[in-house]
Amino acid sequence: MTGTVVTFYSYKGGVGRSSTLANVSMLLARWGHRVLAIDWDLEAPGLHHYFGPMLPSAPQGGVVDLAYDFLDGAERPRDRVVRLEFDGGTVALLAAGRHDAAYAGRVQAVDWEDLYQRGFAAFLERCRAAWTADYDFVLIDSRTGISDIGSICTAHLPDWLVVLFTANDQSVEGAVNIAKLADVARDRLPYDRPQHMVLPILSRLDSRVEYQRAEHWQARCAELAAPLFRNWLARGVPAELMLRHLTLPYVSYWSFGEQLAVLEETTPSADQLSFALETVAAVIAQQFDRTDLLADNRDAYVAAARTQERTYDLDILVSSPRSALKVTMELIDELRALDLNAVRSLSGDPDLLDQATEPARHLCLVVDGAVSRWQATEAERFLRTVEADGDRQLFCVLTSDTDRDGLPGFLRNLRHLELGAGTRPRQVAQQLHELITDAGRDRADSERKILVSAGSALRNVPKQAHHGRWALIDQTVREMSTAVDDDDLLLLKDLTTNLKLLNEVHSSNERSRAPEGLSRLIHVLLERIDREAAGWLTERWRDAGEVRNP
C-alpha cells in the first residue's frame, strides 16, 4: 500500500507550522506509522532544530541536493535521510540540506523554473514514488507565501494539505486562496491527481484572557475556511464545531525554544497543546474519515487512531477492591491457565490512570458490594477509548454481596457474570475466555477495513482524466457496486486496489471531467459504503448486547 504525502502550509509566518508538523510526525510514529518529515522551507530551514536532541549527527544533505542530483543525471534521489529514534517510535528526516557556509549559495543558485523545463517534474515523481513506497506518511514543511517552491509543495507533490492560520483575515484568506490555486495548478499537471483534501488549523488562539474576542474570531475563521471542509466533513457536522477541534491553543510555555509538546505532555488535558495536536494527528491517521465520531466523541476518535494495528501487553486487566482479593486472584489464575495474559489492577492506584497507553485489551471489574469510586473512574476511562475499537470489551463480575440495581447506569446494562456459591472462579474464567476469543471478531474488523479503504478510493477519484480512463473507472465502480450488492468483500477489496491504481495513473493527454452518470454512481455507492462501515460498529455493539443481556 502506497503512503500519503501531506504538505503543511501557511500563508504567513509565525503560525507554528514547523512545530505542528514535528509534533504530528512524532504522534504518527508513536501510533505505529512509518513517517518521513521533509524540510522544504529552503530559505528559512529549521525543522531539524525540533529534532535536535534525537539527531545522531548533523544532516549532510537534503532537499536542495535533489536539484543537483537531477542536474548530475541521477535517476532517483540519493539517500540523505536521517533516522531519529525516540521513546515510542522512529521518524525519518530529510533536512533542507547541509547547513554550512555554502548552503545559502547552493539554494540561491537553483532555478526551479528552468529545472521544470528540463524535466525535473518527472524526477520529482520518482522521488515521490520512492518515498510513498517506504513510508506511510510523508510530511512536507513548505515555505510561506506564493513561490515556485510553494507550488511544488502545494500542487505537485501532496495528496492532502494542512493549512495553518492565525485569527486574522489575511492569514485565513491567504491560506484558503492557496488551496484553491493549488487545485487549479494540479489540473494543469501531466499527472492525474484528485482534488486536495485540506485540513484547516486555527493556530495560536488565546482564549484564556480575551474570551469574547476569541469566540468572535473562532466563528469568523470558521466562516472564511468553510470551503475547505466541503469534500471531507461528514454531513451534518458544522464547520465551526470541527474547527474548534482543530484549534491549537496559544500556550506561552511552548513559545520558547523548539521543544516538542507531545514528548512532555504524554497524557494531556483538554487545555493543553498536545490534546489538540493529537486531534490533528488522528484526522490524518484516519484519512479524514469518521468525522461524525470526532464531533460526538473526540476521545474515542483519537483512541481509534492510536490503537490501529496495535498490540496490547495484556489480554485482560482485572480490577477489584481489596475485599475481593482472594477470589480475584483465583480468577486470574484460572484465566492464565486458559492462556490469557491477565493481571490484577489495584483500584485506587493513581499511577494506572496516568498511563499514556492502555495496558490491556479488555477490562474486567470484580464488584464486591458496590462499585468503588476508582473502579468507576477506570471503567469510564476505558469506555472513552473503546467506542471506535470494537475488539475491546468491558466485563462486570459480581460477588454474591452485590446489588445489581445499585450499579451505575453504564454498568447496569451489561450482562453480569456472577461469583458465588453456585459459580466458582473457574466457571467465570471459562465464560470470559469464550467472550474474549470470539473467532468472528477478527473477520468483522477486516470487513470494516475493506469498506473504509473502498470509501477512501472513491473519494480520491480524480476530477479530470482522459476519456479512456473514465471508461475504466466507470467499469470498476460499477463492479464495486455489484460486489457490495452481493456482499462479496473479497472482490470489493480487489476492485478497490484497481481503482486506487486508476486514480494514480499519469497521463499527458487531453482530459475532461467525470461523466455526470459516473459522478452520481460514485456518490450513491459512497453513501452506501459509509452507511455500512458506520453500521459495522453499531452491529458490533448490538451483537455484544445480545451476549451481555440475557
Structure explained in plain terms:
With 550 residues, the protein is an alpha/beta fold. It has 3 domains: 4-307, 3-Layer(aba) Sandwich (Rossmann fold); 314-423, Rossmann fold (3-Layer(aba) Sandwich); 436-544, no CATH class. Helix content is 49%, strand content 15%. The strands form 3 sheets. An 8-stranded mixed sheet has the order 3-4-2-5-1-6-7-8, with helices on both faces. A 5-stranded parallel sheet has the order 10-9-11-12-13, sandwiched between helices. Helix 20 runs antiparallel to helix 23 and helix 21 (467-485) runs antiparallel to helix 22 (489-504). The chain is globular. The two termini are 43 Å apart.
Please outline what is shown here.
The protein has 550 residues and is an alpha/beta fold.
Index terms:
single chain; Rossmann fold; 3 domains; eight-stranded mixed β-sheet; five-stranded parallel β-sheet; 49% helix; globular
Provide the CATH architecture of the largest domain: 3-Layer(aba) Sandwich
**Low-pLDDT segments, ≥5 res:** 537-550
The count of helical stretches stands at 23
CATH domain class name of the largest domain: Alpha Beta
Pairing-aware structural class of the strands and helices? alpha/beta
Q: What topology emerges from the helices and strands here?
A:
Elements: E1 4-10, H1 17-30, E2 35-39, H2 47-50, H3 64-71, E3 82-86, E4 89-94, H4 103-108, H5 112-117, H6 120-134, E5 137-141, H7 148-156, E6 160-165, H8 169-188, E7 197-205, H9 211-225, H10 239-245, E8 247-249, H11 261-264, H12 273-285, H13 291-296, H14 298-306, E9 314-320, H15 325-337, E10 342-346, H16 350-353, E11 360-367, H17 373-386, E12 394-399, H18 409-412, E13 416-419, H19 425-436, H20 440-459, E14 464-465, H21 467-485, H22 489-504, E15 512-513, H23 516-548
Parallel strand pairs: 1-5, 1-6, 2-4, 2-5, 6-7, 7-8, 9-10, 9-11, 11-12, 12-13
Antiparallel strand pairs: 3-4, 14-15
Helix pairs in contact: 1-12, 7-8, 9-10, 12-14, 14-17, 15-19, 20-22, 20-23, 21-22, 21-23
